[in-house]
User: Which sequence fits this backbone?
């Protein structure tokens, strides 16, 4: 798993487009995070957008799923894990 926090900027790193496009074929996946959906790399095949405590999920070739309830675990739990 390759996490790109600030994905728009990190997409310009040499070789990153190849990681995003060819990585899944060798079980290397990208998790792209950015402030706005429009800033995500075009190679993203699934997108989750948070709106309050609800999510919408969009994936290539599948209808968009809206009003998904987020787990909303607290920061302490995340740090422990």
Assistant:
């Amino acid at each position: 798993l390759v996490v790109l926090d600030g994905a728009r900027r990190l997409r310009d790193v040499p070789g990153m487009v190849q990681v995003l496009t060819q990585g899944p074929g060798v079980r290397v996946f990208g998790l792209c995070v950015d402030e706005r959906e429009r800033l995500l790399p075009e190679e993203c095949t699934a997108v989750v957008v948070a709106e309050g405590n609800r999510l919408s999920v969009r994936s290539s070739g599948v209808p968009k799923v809206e009003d998904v309830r987020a787990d909303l675990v607290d920061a302490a739990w995340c740090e422990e894990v």
User: Anything to note?
Assistant: The longest strand covers residues 62-69. The chain has two domains: 1-42, 45-81.
